């Protein structure tokens, strides 16, 4: 749910009017409120956070294959995020990452290889990865048409969460400036020429893999607990809509 930022600026308090939007690839949410303001809100969350969230919604909606696929892709996009952070640490400009990424952009095995070695270089230990059985489960679902049960999809999501969250915390702890810089690059990349003359604001949301406040209890929650909250949120949002 997104509200009008121009109303907030003009009236000094958030309006009670919310637009229901769907997750977008470009991270841009354009809306026109009942006062006629056309504004753009850019979602601060990285792709891997949004993809994990989409996987959770897929479970709630009963699409378990799609959930497994989104969780897998979330992890792959986290590797990309981490690589960008590592290269920011070395070069302090995004061009080095962009140049290297071009060479591996369509080969996920190469990306994983780069991630394993750069992680080991910075943390002096190999990164936690999915087990062989989790990887073959994912391949069966994504490539061979296996139809997983709900509990299998939740278990797989928990496995992804279990390795992704500690690695994200480690990155935030060791490279706070670089993480901030990569967030800035992300917001910059979401800007468009059509923004000229419009109110453009950024919005951060709390997601399952990451919470801005660094709430530790949130960090330790299993996916099944998050699903309960998400279902409640979905019900409230649906009610507000109808
Ligand atoms: Zn407005």
Overview of the molecule:
By secondary structure, the chain is mostly helical. 62% of the residues lie in helices and 8% in strands. It is built from ten helices and five strands. The protein has helices spanning 5-11, 47-60, 64-91, 95-104, 108-123, 132-144, 150-174, 176-189, 216-220, 223-241, and strands at 2-3, 18-19, 28-32, 38-43, 199-203. The strands form two sheets. A three-stranded mixed beta sheet has the order 3-4-5, with no helix packed on it. The chain has a two-stranded antiparallel sheet with strand order 1-2. A hairpin with a 5-residue loop joins β3 and β4 (38-43). The radius of gyration is 19 Å and the shape is globular. The model has no long low-confidence stretch (mean pLDDT 92). The site of zinc ion (ZN) has 6 residues, from α1. Zinc ion binds next to α1.
Keywords:
single chain; mainly alpha; two-stranded antiparallel ribbon; binds zinc ion
Write the layout of secondary structure elements.
Layout: E1 2-3, H1 5-11, E2 18-19, E3 28-32, E4 38-43, H2 47-60, H3 64-91, H4 95-104, H5 108-123, H6 132-144, H7 150-174, H8 176-189, E5 199-203, H9 216-220, H10 223-241
Parallel strand pairs: 4-5
Antiparallel strand pairs: 1-2, 3-4
Helix pairs in contact: 2-3, 2-7, 2-10, 3-4, 3-5, 3-7, 3-8, 7-8
The site of zinc ion has 6 residues, from helix 1.
